[in-house]
Every structure is written in C-alpha cells, then in structure tokens.
Amino acid sequence: MDLAFLWFWIIGFFFIGYFVLDGFDFGVGMSLPFLAKDDVGRRQIINTIGPVWDLNETWLIVAGACLFAAFPEWYATLFSGFYLPLLLILLALIARGVSFEYRHQRDGLRWKRSFDTMIVVGSAVPAFLWGVAFANIVQGVPIDADMEFTGSLLTLLNPYGLLGGATTLLLFFVHGVTFVALKTDGPVHEKARRLATRAGVLAVAVAAVFVLWTVSAHFSLPVLALGAVAAVCLIASVLANARDREGRAFAFGAVTIVAAVAMLFFALFPNVMPSSTDPAFNLTIENASSTDYTLTIMSWAALIFVPLVLAYQAWTYWIFRKRVTRARIETAAASAH
Known about the structure:
The protein is mostly helical and 337 residues long. The protein has helices at 3-30, 32-35, 39-47, 53-70, 72-81, 83-102, 109-139, 153-156, 159-183, 186-217, 221-242, 246-268, 292-319, 326-336, and strands at 271-273, 283-284. It has one domain (3-194, 268-336). It has a two-stranded antiparallel ribbon with strand order 1-2.
C-alpha cells in the first residue's frame, strides 16, 4: 500500500480514538446541569473523568501533528478555511481544562458555579463544532485552483453541516451520560441512566437522518455497511441502558462512534478535502501528501510509539476502573474540612 494512503487511515484511526474518548468527556461535562443538584453530585460526575480527560485529549494533538506532517496541503487548507471554528474549539478546550483544575481551589458557591458553567460550555462547543467541521469536509467546501478556501463561516453553517453538529452533540452527550451511569452510584447513577435513555431516543432520530443523507450522497458498500453498524449499535446502546446494562450500553455507544467516524472517512476517500467549486480542485490523498521519505520516517516512529501510548492508556483506565461513589466524595469533603 502507498504510504500516503496508509497515513490517511492512520489519521482516521487517531480521530476515531479522539472522538470515542474525548467524546464521552464532552458528554460528562454537558451532563452537569442535568444530573447533579449539589456540589457532592457534581464532584462525583467530574471525578469520573478526572484521571483521564487530559490523556484523552492527547489523541487530538497526535492527530493534528500527523495531519501537519503527512498532509501539509490538507492541514494548510483546513486550518485557514476553518480558522474560526477551530479557534472556538481550542478556546473551549482551554476553558474546560482550566475549570477542571480550578473549580476546587475555593469553597465559594459562585466560584464553583462559574467554572461549572465553563465546563458545560467548553464541552458543548467542541462537541457541536467537530460535527460541523467533519460534515463540511466530507460534503466539500469552496476551494480554488491554489488549494485555498474561498468561503466564510456562513459557508460552513449549511443544513448538512448543522445536522452533523447536532449528531455529534447528541452522540457525545448520550455517550457521556452512559459513562456517568457506568461509573457512579446513588442518585447520580439513576438520573444518568434515565437521561441516557431519553436522550438516546432523540440521538437515534437525528443520527438516522444524518446517516441516510451521508449514504445517499456518498454511496458505497463500506459507507452503507458502516452507517448500518452505527445505527444498529446506537439502538442497542439505548436498549441496553434501559435494561440497566451500563457496560454494554457504553460499549455499543463506543462502537457507534467508531462506525460513524469511519463512515465519514470512507465517504471522503480518496479525497481529503473535496472542492465544491470544481472537482478538478479537490485535495486528494496523492496531491496533498508529504514526500515518501517523510512518510517513511513517520511510519517507523508510529510503529514504535503508538503501541506504547495504547498500552499506557489501557493501563490508566484499568487503574481507575472502579466506580466513583457518593460516600467517597462525602468522606473526602469531610476530611478536607
């Protein structure tokens, strides 16, 4: 296989990992106003992702770095054309990260509520805008003969792009709420399980429209098969959660996101950014990639370091596999005072 094609799928792998892992982080952050009525409940929710949220975000850093090195033309066109949405995503991620670290530094109610609001907004904005961005990448955007984006922010806010944003927002929300149900006990657990079922029904309806639109516009057997897998697994996740099987529900939710993102990459292939101006201006895997020498060095580095990163992340999740109980949070709060 040509190395450029190999790296297209490696970058797809990193984005799939990012959306699965940081996706439930976003969902957990968005769930704060719905699942917790007191600070103990909010701490219980936040502590479910406390040890892993920053590790999950490294997948985005690696994906971006690989995109820059393997496909510089794709990177340049994407980041210049999608500058404002990507800037908003970056600012939201910064605000969310700061909030995780600072909300517990004071006991004041106003202080904590301010940072809780930043967590919610900092989770919802990327969850929505990533869907808008990827939907537009797949659909195609105005690109001229010089590989430059000629549209504006309003160009990206088209029906398919907005539907993509709504789909990722809901999928990540359900994925995160299911994770909260899996990792907590008491009132938060029960509220999360009920909310995941209700939100899951809405997610099924919205995602179904997005999948059908994508399949009809970019039909191929892999796109059709992956769209079907995503739909079946999302329904299975909702049903498993309704039966109080949070582990299965979370696993099915993860497979849903894997299949949905893989569907988008297959819909994009062999392009990396189609041009809605003229198909002759499409950025493809071949005309947007780096040299074979660069890709060869990257391949050896990936062969060595990717297994190490995967092993470390698996070990981290194993160490922090236990439920975050309300009693533990209350005991910690009492000892702190």
